[in-house]
Amino acid sequence: MAVVLVSGGLDSMISAASAKAAGYRILALSVDYNQRHKVELAAARRVAVALGAERHIVLPLDLSAFGGSALTADIDVPKDGVQPGIPVTYVPARNTIFLSLALGWAEAAGARDLFIGVNALDYSGYPDCRPEFVAAFEGLAEIATKAGVEGQPFKIHAPLQHMTKADIVREGTRLGVDMGLSWSCYDPAPGGLHCGRCDSCRLRSKGFEEAGIPDPTAYAVKPQG
């Protein structure tokens, strides 16, 4: 059994599918952090059902109270292409917070495996997507929990860590998942469309194009670069 972080995005969907393919029973965890693209939670519910999660918790935790990100505050989402550096769509300590919640559920449920869909190649430059972060959190889990200090350590799985977005799309195809169920856009357009201009839309489109696999996503405008 594994606790799997399911945001509704493409990467978390393929991470969850990897857990299922490896034989894990899935406990799916999504966080309603009052994100601008809250529509992704509907996608998370679709994904959890499609992958046969034994339980799916959507946990309310309003990070807009802190702000500091274009996803949680009144800050424009950048739409000029992926730029160097850490963008304003970075949510302060988001993956640390989310993995802490997943760790708490895992310990309570008797699970010792956690899955997260972070990626350190085709991504937006977030510090909490790097291998060093995943390794550090795994070490933290061992000393911060009753299970860990009693010799039952936790394993943080990041199956997409070293994949390009094209690799991720190919993996989704190999696993037979309907990638059209997922949602990536940071700033949804009217009519339930991906905007086609934010970093996340551009990276998603680029992945399908480079993989040579038809993109099932409906965009308001065709992503460029």
UniProtKB/TrEMBL annotation:
Binding positions for ATP per the UniProt entry: V6, S7, G8, G9, L10, D11, S12, M13, I14, S15, A16
Alphabetical UniProt keywords: ATP-binding, Ligase, Metal-binding, Nucleotide-binding, Queuosine biosynthesis, Zinc
Pathway annotation: Purine metabolism; 7-cyano-7-deazaguanine biosynthesis
Catalytic function, reaction form: 7-carboxy-7-carbaguanine + NH4(+) + 2 ATP = 7-cyano-7-carbaguanine + 2 AMP + 2 diphosphate + 2 H(+)
Protein name (record): 7-cyano-7-deazaguanine synthase
NCBIfam families associated with the record: 7-cyano-7-deazaguanine synthase QueC (TIGR00364)
Protein family (similarity comment): Belongs to the QueC family.
GO MF, one annotated term: zinc ion binding
Comment on bound cofactor: Binds 1 zinc ion per subunit.
One record GO biological process: tRNA queuosine(34) biosynthetic process
Matches recorded under HAMAP family: QueC
The keyword Ligase appears for this protein: yes
Cofactor(s), names only, from the UniProt record: Zn(2+)
Chain residues that bind Zn(2+): C185, C195, C198, C201
Enzyme class: ligase
EC number(s) per entry: 6.3.4.20
Source organism per UniProt: Sphingomonas paucimobilis NBRC 13935
Keyword Heme: no
Summary of the function given for this chain in its UniProt record: Catalyzes the ATP-dependent conversion of 7-carboxy-7-deazaguanine (CDG) to 7-cyano-7-deazaguanine (preQ(0)).
